[in-house]
Specification:
The structure is a homodimer.
Chain A lengths: L5 H8 L2 E6 L4 H13 L4 E5 L7 H6 L5 H5 L1 E3 L2 H5 L4 E5 L10 E3 H15 L3 E5 L8 H4 L4 E4 L11 H23 L25 H17 L11 H12 L3 H18 L13
Parallel strand pairs in A: 1-2, 1-6, 2-3, 4-6, 4-7, 5-7
Helix pairs in contact in A: 1-8, 2-8, 6-8, 9-11
Chain lengths: ~280, ~280
């Protein structure tokens, strides 16, 4: 589904920049680039990085080195966000200034809504490894954003936090795009792609299932598992069981084939090699 | 908001285990523990890890070393999941067997729903760094789970993937807890009220299903529906089909009873009234 609107997704996500302030460890910059690229976000702005450039950045950004060429380096956070409409400052909950605070999911939804509807430029700002953003820096944000972590152990490192934020931004983008394409949904079961196997069979209809259940019950009568005079709860249980699955056409034909084979055996019309009676 | 129901969250998340198969790099195990702890998930099971123990695990798991003591080591994936009701195999979309596939968000919602309503045990299985899970391992899962990444660069490493999956599990748990404060949920399967019917049977575990499939296949051999020399895709299709259902104990016994009856008929050890041969 999301593959259909890849281009919209990337153009939406193109309005987002990740800003890292005063980062100390080059490895965190490399990991951030990789996290960003997996989610199709490509603009990183570094505010006065402590160590840049550095080979660890390239090493950790394996496969995302094209984003290194796009990195912008600036001296202050003000410069990093000056052309943005919407700025989120990330913060651990406990030690921040009072400010409008959003969890990352609604924050991402707000960001994508503003990008889609108003072509806004959005920045997500991450602080230093050891002490985050200063109160002055946090005051430059429209909103503060937090990731709901285990309160007894709230120590996501900056690259992990960027991974989750970028993931939520991508999810918000995909959700907006799929809502936009008026949901070209199919009645097919979503399965793993594999071109040479056709597994995405259409699901059978209730009408077909109304032939399936009597067939199964007749088979169970034939093997004397079901007493038609006293079926008890068996037919109901089987409807409940197979009603939960939603069979696809292949599975439906397969099971009906099994029923027919069992019936043929019970009628003696299938020459079973185990019996060696007649041939 | 989520602070109110922290205790419910942690008890829900206590039903989840992360399973890493054949992990090569100790650093990935350490990072996984840290990612888990930030999201309050504490059970890691390692299936035949390449290097364990190792000081890099402790180093990367900074602050999450209490989870190291809880790690379980097993030889096979079957052992890791034998007491689980619901198993998700993580896979990159492109190179896996066809199987019911869920994005990580709906997968996490399903997991937490089944934990909350049925006290299920849930496993999320992650594969090798270089080549993921084998098709045989993927076939042990009820569902495959994927993270919707940039299709041009789908290279989340295993620790990053675990971070996102644990985050979504925690979000699903927090959402359920906040919804629960108004709902008085029961631990029974939601069915139409009818006092004299006991429908809320416990669901069977993966270990029981590992007896179910061979029984079904033997039965299909006996009626010559399955050729053991050339089973083609049939065993896989049946695993996929019944893996979607999650049988309860009653249904499980019922189906195994059917298999045994069919076998007895095919062996001529069941006196079938339709045949009128011997009695």
């Amino acid at each position: 589904m999301q593959d259909l609107d890849q281009s919209n997704t990337s153009s939406n996500l193109g309005h987002i920049r990740i800003v890292m302030v005063n980062t100390t460890l080059p490895a965190n910059i490399g990991s951030a680039l990789r996290a960003m690229k997996t989610m199709e976000i490509s603009q990183l702005v570094l505010v006065a990085p402590k160590t840049y450039p550095h080979p660890d950045i390239d090493a950790l950004a394996a496969g995302a080195t094209d984003l290194i060429d796009k990195i912008k380096i600036v001296d202050t956070l003000e410069e990093a966000i000056e052309d943005c409409h919407l700025v989120f400052g990330t913060s651990a909950r406990s030690r921040t200034i009072p400010w409008p605070l959003l969890d990352v999911r609604p924050a991402a939804e707000l960001a994508l809504k503003n990008i889609t509807e108003h072509q806004q430029e959005v920045a997500i700002v991450f602080g230093r490894e050891d002490r985050g953003l200063t109160n002055e820096e946090l005051a430059l944000a429209n909103f503060h954003m937090t990731i709901p972590v285990n309160s007894a152990y709230g120590v996501l490192n900056v690259a992990q936090a960027i991974q989750i934020v970028c993931y939520e931004l991508r999810m918000a983008s995909l959700n907006i795009c799929s809502a936009e394409t008026t949901n070209t949904s199919t009645d097919k079961m979503p399965v793993t792609d594999q071109a040479d196997m056709v597994w995405d069979e259409p699901l059978v209809t209730q009408k077909q299932m109304q032939e399936f259940y009597p067939h199964m019950e007749k088979m169970l009568e034939d093997i004397e598992f079901l007493d038609p005079q006293n079926p008890r709860l068996l037919p109901l249980r089987l409807r409940r069981l197979f009603g939960r699955i939603q069979l696809d056409r292949m599975e439906y034909n397969l099971l009906r084939g099994v029923f027919s084979r069992v019936q043929a055996m019970s009628h003696g019309t299938w020459k079973n090699n185990n019996n060696h009676n007649e041939d």
